[in-house]
Structure formats: C-alpha cells, structure tokens
Amino acid sequence: MVFSSGNFANKVCLHSLLLLLFSANVAFSGTLVTSIPGFDGDLPFKLYTGYITVKKVEMFYYFIESEGNPKEDPVLLWYSGGPGCSAFNGLIYQIGPLAFNMTHYTGGTPKTYYYPYSWTKDANILFVDAPVGTGFSYATSAEAYAVTDTITAAQVYPFLRKWLTEEYPEYLLNELFIGADSYSGTSGPIVVKDIADDNNAGVVPRLNLKGYILGCPRTDADINDNSRIIYAHRMGLVSDELYEAAKESCNGSYAQATTSQSQCYEDIQSMKHCTKDINKNHILEPKCTWAAPHPYGESLRRALEEDSAGLTLNSDVPEYFCHSFGYALSYIWANDKTVREALHIREGTIYDWKRCNQSLAFTNDVNSVVDYHKNLSKLGLQVLVYNGDHDLVIPNIGTQQWIKILNLTIVNDWRPWLVDGQVAGYTIKYSTNGYRLTYASIKGAGHSPQEYKRRECFQMFNRFIHYYPI
After folding, report:
1. Is 165 a member of any domain?
2. Rounded to two decimals, what is the model's pTM?
3. Quick check: 389 and 425 in contact, CB under 8 A?
C-alpha cells in the first residue's frame, strides 16, 4: 500500500539544493525553549527542540525534562502513528504538559495552557517526528523521502542512539522505554528489537532498555480488520442476523474478502453500510461535517477540509462540538512564524506543516509484528499495551487476540482498575520468564485513548512506570 501525492516529488526537488547547502554547516545540539507564543509567561517545564541527522534525514524532536527527578526518572521515546502524524499529537493532545485552550477561539495564534496530567511528571519524554516527512522532520535528498515500516524503524533507532550518546549522554544510565501510538505500533516493536539485538551483541554504549508502551497499536493487519467486524457486532452496530450470515459466508475471516467470494463480499459491504456514518475514532461521538460560519483564514479552512472527519467550530454548544476542532488549531499554531522562531525551526525546510501528512511517500511493508512480540517475550522487559473501548479503528478485541497468541502466563486475571474510586477500565497482567505485559482498557475512550481520558491515562502510566499494579 503506497501513500503519495502527485506533486510531492516536484516540491521535494525544488527544495533539495537549498536543504543540501543549508544542512552542511548546522549544529545539532538541542536548544532550550523558555517561552512560546500563545502561552502566558515562561514555560513551567524545560523544553528543548532540535534536529538529529540520520544519513540524509534531519529528525526533529521536542524533549521535555521530567518534572520530577530528571536524573533518575526514565526516558520515554514517543512517536505517533498515521503514518505521517507529528509527535506534536503526543505533546499537546495526549501525554504532554500543554493543551490548547479551545474555549472562545476568535482567531490569531491559539492559546495554550499548562496541563497537569502529563506523563512528564514521571518521565523525561523525547518526542520525535518520525518517519521523515512527518511534522518538522525533513530530508536533504528527494529519494530519502520514500519510507516504509522498516525504514521508519531504521530512522528512529539511529536517531535515539545518536541523541543519547552524542547529544544527551547524561541520560544514558536512565531506564529507557519506547512508546508508539496507533500505526507506529508496527515499527515500535522493530525499534525495540534493534536495541535489544545491539545490547546482546555488546554494542557500546549500551542503551538501558527496560520496556515499551503501545497505545491502540496496529500490530497485525488481518487481526485488526477482522476485529472491526466482531467489535461492530458486539456494540450493536450490526444485527445478529447479518453478523451470523457474514460469519458463515466468510468462514470467520473478513479481512481478505474479495468479489470472487460473492456472498461474503456482499455481507461485508452490508456491514460497512451500517457503520459508514459512525465516527470510527470514537463510536459515541458525532461524525462531523464542515460547519464553520466564521472562517478564520485560508490556513484554517485548508486544515478543516483536509481533516477526513470534518468538524465544527462552535465549542460553546457541547452537542455541536467536535473533537477534531483541536486538530485545526495545530495547523494555525505550527505554521505561525513566531511559533517556528520560538521552536528554532530551520527556515525553508517545511513550508506547510501538517498534523498528519497525507502526502507522505509511504509504503506498508510489514503486515504483522506478532512474531516480533513473541521474540521480545523471551526478554525481561516491562510492557504496557492499552486501548480505548470505544475505538473502531484499532478495536480492543484485536489487541487482546494477538496478546493471547503470545501464550503468556496470566498472573493477575481480568479485573477493573480504578481512578478516584471509579472504574477507569479493565486490566489483565501476564508474566513469562521475566517478561511482564500489562494490558489495560480505558473506559469511554476512543482512538487514541489519551485524547479522551488524559487523567485516567496519566494514572495508568504513573502506576506502570513505578512498577505498581494498575
């Protein structure tokens, strides 16, 4: 499967010479950012931004020091899915200490505020725009923009090693966790394997790998596609009769239905018709259409039109508010000149920042990483996997299925987990030969869970990273 656009190569060629000349004499040390446009006063945490060179690629990162004890707290590398979604997603919508103020937005640079339920309370977090072509990461040659799942991993691991060994060696002894979200659940385990392989081979300096964290991860294409059908039925989106008919005509395998399987194909199409107007990211939220009575400039309009779900700008009336409104603000913020200056973005590298780059020249070359997880289960790693239970993009059913394939031993069976005395979701813990995997669902959350239940997800992470039961 190839993700590309017709004018992509032309744009790259226009800028290649400029980038080659520019990158020849740059320093790669991160720069402290003390304030940003739209935030009142100085930032109450330490934010560094910078670039790390990986061959012909300049990987952009945001690094936020732990608000606890930076010298002793773990380092968490985090990158988003898509493919092509900026790590800015993680920083401002999911696990970082910033959030947009979406109340009474009237134009201009969006306001941000300090968000207390940030994973930086307990960890140093390194957000990276990966693969190249994502966020502010760019290449100095046109051919370097062609990426795959394996190339993504081959960019992320060298980036991390160089960041730790050359730029921030003071964090080499800190515990290291790899975090990946959504589509990056495919390349994330490959990165973990590459680190473990080098550690086992005696490569120095050794990275202090302790585990990995996967949020609503794409792990196996067939399992994921099948689970959508099962989930839609369990949630009452399709009838018992239609589900049973499809189950029989497709022999329980829905992912590869083709027109040659006429009845199976017809049943699957009927199911898709039942869910086509459902918001796949969160089945209880509206699937919004374009509704902007007061457009705020061409950049916002473009952002809204590019968002496949659409949205509404009226945040004052809850029943008319769409979750994706916050996404539109990111386009305005990241394309603002003063914001780019504050973040030390290199001029002439990214002309039009996108939250999720749909023109990424990406080819999917890994359909399943279940075997990677099987191999990693032989190592003494700490693993957290979680899903929102209202997510139809990566349903929790599929995640639980591939975890069972690992054939791990249950040490704490299925039970509710609580936040402030209320059920926040359900969890189960496995352990085999020192490999400990905790699975958690987040009640009422969609895709990705932290965007809907940030406080609950913070509590989940806090317990996991401190080795407490969830």
Report:
1. yes
2. 0.88
3. yes
